[in-house]
Write a structure and sequence with these properties.
This protein has helices spanning 12-23, 51-59, 65-73, 79-85, 116-121, 123-146, 163-176, 186-190, 200-204, 209-219, 233-249, 264-277, 293-301, 313-316, 398-409, 414-417, 432-447, and strands at 29-36, 46-47, 93-96, 102-103, 110-115, 151-154, 180-181, 225-227, 256-259, 284-287, 308-311, 326-333, 336-337, 352-358, 364-371, 379-380, 383-387, 390-391, 427-430. By secondary structure, the chain is an alpha/beta fold. It has two domains: 12-136 and 321-447, Alpha-Beta Barrel (nicotinate phosphoribosyltransferase); 142-316, Aldolase class I (TIM Barrel, Alpha-Beta Barrel), CATH 3.20.20.70. The strands form four sheets. A seven-stranded antiparallel sheet has the order 13-12-1-5-3-17-18. The protein has a six-stranded parallel sheet with strand order 7-6-11-10-9-8. The longest helix has 24 residues, at 123-146.
């Protein structure tokens, strides 16, 4: 049993609902949509991510013998229902925004059309995958926007909430524009560039700091980035300068130094001066240590001569906005639109499209959310990704997605690129056809009349 691929990695109510659907013969087509109700504080946009893992999950959805045996022995489910699950596969259609697309509240970024048992079962894991990577990609994009051209490296594995989170955070941050990751498994899994330096413990295990630098350089002559804050940062920089001629004679160039503590701006200025005075003008300065996009902005605004940043805990946990108000809701069943009317949690009914409009200079202007049959001008954002349980196209690959995300971020107007909440939120219009349908459903629900079928859905 592979725990990360198991259909048992879900909430219990998904399985109890499946048994209820089975018992009552409810197998009609359902339409569910994944969307975010509101933006977290200080977020002006979100960046879609996690679709690749969601599609992989759907392709591989099935119960193996061990899982069926456990369900049968659990005492929770009927024997005929458990046997029915043996043949369960995802056979539905999926429309989604491509990964790397900026999106906003009330816009479906993923739509599933499938028999209701299938569409129901996948809810928890689908939200789990898309929500997490979207949260991290949206966080990473903020550092990318405030530090254009800088080396940005994911350092988050050790503080991630689990191994899968660490791996997927490496993927999501690279998609959003980070330069790479320190998480080694992300390279063979996703093709993400790796970055790493040395440990304080290596320096401490030597009796002499300079000897530690030399020993490291001999083993990794092509990656001579020295960690220089174990004891005294400026003193270590001077030792680096003193070693430079010796290393140069051995054909080793000092690639960079890393600062991990203290007043990073002051240390960076002092170290830059020490290096430049010795002619090491090409030796870069890389900074880490509890950084986030706000600290990066602050350092750059102060003119700190830092060439790159390692960002870990705040990135992998999306510390200032660790979750989104993301939901996956039924919008149509058996050909009839459905609408949740709970106060504060009401949904727009029916299967929908999102059309994006741009200003003349190519920047985002506004979006329109409407029913699928209500064709609008603008660029339709939802694309067919899977039909009949099979992908319609091969995976685009992480580099293609990263290039796409970069182009998409370039379309954000300045007020949406800011780290603080904009006084001018992005405009998302709900089309009259969609508003009218919601009003009609509410009226009929109050009157106790049957729901309309196929009303521009």
């Amino acid at each position: 049993m592979n725990p990360l691929k198991s259909p048992l990695l879900t909430d219990l109510y998904q399985l109890t609902m499946l048994q209820a659907y089975f018992a009552h013969g409810m197998r009609e087509t359902a339409v569910f949509e994944f969307f975010v109700r509101t933006l977290p504080p200080h977020r002006n946009f979100l960046l879609a991510a996690g679709l690749e893992q969601a599609l992989e999950f759907l392709e591989q959805l099935r119960f193996d013998q061990d899982e069926l045996a456990w369900l049968g022995q659990s005492g929770l489910f009927r024997k005929d229902f458990v046997e029915h699950l043996r043949g369960l596969r995802f056979t539905g259609d999926v429309y989604a925004m491509p990964e790397g697309t900026p999106f906003f509240p009330q816009e479906p970024i993923l739509r599933v059309t499938a028999p209701i048992p299938q569409a129901q079962l996948i809810e928890s894991r689908l939200i789990n995958l898309v929500h997490f990577e979207t949260t991290v990609a949206s966080k990473a994009a903020r550092s990318v926007l405030v530090a254009p051209g800088k080396l940005l490296v994911d350092f988050g594995l050790r503080r991630a909430h689990g191994a899968e989170a660490g791996l997927l955070a490496a993927r999501a941050s690279y998609l959003a524009g980070f330069s790479g990751t320190a998480t080694v498994l992300a390279a063979p899994m996703f093709g993400i560039p790796l970055f790493g330096t040395m440990a304080h413990s290596f320096v401490q295990a030597h009796d002499d700091e300079a000897a530690a630098f030399v020993d490291f350089a001999k083993v990794f002559p092509g990656n001579t980035v020295f960690l220089i804050d174990t004891y005294d940062t400026e003193s270590a920089a001077r030792k680096i300068v003193a070693l430079a001629p010796q290393l140069q004679q051995a054909g080793i160039a000092i690639k960079g130094v890393r600062l991990d503590s203290g007043d990073l701006a002051a240390h960076a200025r002092n170290v830059r001066r020490i290096l430049d005075d010795a002619g090491l003008t090409r030796t870069t300065i890389f900074a880490s240590g509890n950084l986030d996009e706000y600290r990066v902005r602050e350092l750059l605004a102060a003119g700190a001569p830092i060439d790159g940043f390692g960002i870990g805990s705040s990135l992998v946990t999306a510390s200032d906005a660790p979750f989104l108000d993301a939901v996956y809701k039924l919008q149509e069943y058996a050909g009839k639109p459905r609408r949740k009317r709970s106060p504060g949690k009401a949904t727009w009914p029916g299967r929908k499209r999102v059309y994006r409009h741009y200003r003349d200079e190519g920047l985002l202007d506004h979006d329109v959310v409407t029913l699928e049959g209500d064709v609008q001008p603008g660029n339709p954002l939802l694309q067919l990704m899977m039909r009949g349980g099979r992908r319609v196209n091969a995976s685009p690959g992480i580099e293609t997605l990263r290039t796409y995300a970069k182009a998409q971020l370039a379309t954000l107007p300045q007020h949406l690129r800011e780290l603080d909440g904009s006084a001018e939120p992005y405009r998302v219009e709900i089309a009259p056809a969609l508003q009218d349908l919601a009003v009609e459903l509410d009226r009929q629900s109050v009157a106790g009349q049957p729901l309309p079928a196929n009303v521009m859905c």
